[in-house]
Amino acid sequence: MEKDPLTDKERRALRLAKDGLSTEDIASKLFLSTDTVRNYLPSASRKLNAKSRIEAI
């Protein structure tokens, strides 16, 4: 079984981004700062070898 490269919070942030939520809304829903969400999304994209947030979701 292959290990998921994403953390649970990165995965949740990507799902919310897919649903069209803004960085601020994602932060509010996950009880995180906007800076943390701004770090999670590019980190998740890198782990998925995606060139953009859109490609990651």
Describe this protein's structure.
Residues 1-57 form the HTH luxR-type domain. This is Transcriptional regulatory protein DesR. Keywords: DNA-binding, Transcription, Transcription regulation. GO terms for molecular function: DNA binding. By secondary structure, the chain is mostly helical. The chain has one domain: Winged helix-like DNA-binding domain superfamily/Winged helix DNA-binding domain (Arc Repressor Mutant, subunit A, Orthogonal Bundle), CATH 1.10.10.10. It has helices at residues 8-18, 23-30, 34-47, 53-56. α1 (8-18) packs across α2 (23-30) and α1 (8-18) crosses α3 (34-47). The radius of gyration is 11 Å and the shape is globular.
Relative helix content = 55-70%
Mean of pLDDT: 93
How big is the Rg? 11 Å
CATH fold node name: Arc Repressor Mutant, subunit A
As residue ranges, the low-confidence spans are: none
The number of strands is 0
Q: What form results from the Cα inertia axes? A: globular
Output the CATH class name: Mainly Alpha
Order of helices and strands: HHHH
Largest sheet: none
Q: In angstroms, what separates the terminal alpha carbons? A: 22 Å
**What is the CATH superfamily?**
Winged helix-like DNA-binding domain superfamily/Winged helix DNA-binding domain
Structural class: mainly alpha
* CATH architecture assignment name: Orthogonal Bundle
Give the domain tally.
Answer: 1
Strand content: under 5%
| Count of alpha and pi helical runs | 4
Keywords: DNA-binding, Transcription, Transcription regulation
Protein name: Transcriptional regulatory protein DesR
Pfam families: GerE
Domain HTH luxR-type: 1-57
